[in-house]
Amino acid sequence: MKKNVGSVDRLLRLILGAVIIVWGVYDESWWGLIGLIPLLMTGLMNWCPIYVPFKISTIKAGDNKKEI
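and the corresponding structure tokens:
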């Protein structure tokens, strides 16, 4: 799979994932586990499955698009 999440998009996803997890812990809710999706899958792997069918990529032209 090719990377399709750029650096700014990645940073926002990491922050959002962490906030959702902290909120879930604070609220003592299992919904905080949803924060793992943006944190692990899209933030750390630089790949978003929702972008694939729409052929969207937030990677700039000069960034590396190597397969992972």
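(Above: one complete record from the training split.) Residues 7-26 form the longest helix (20 residues).
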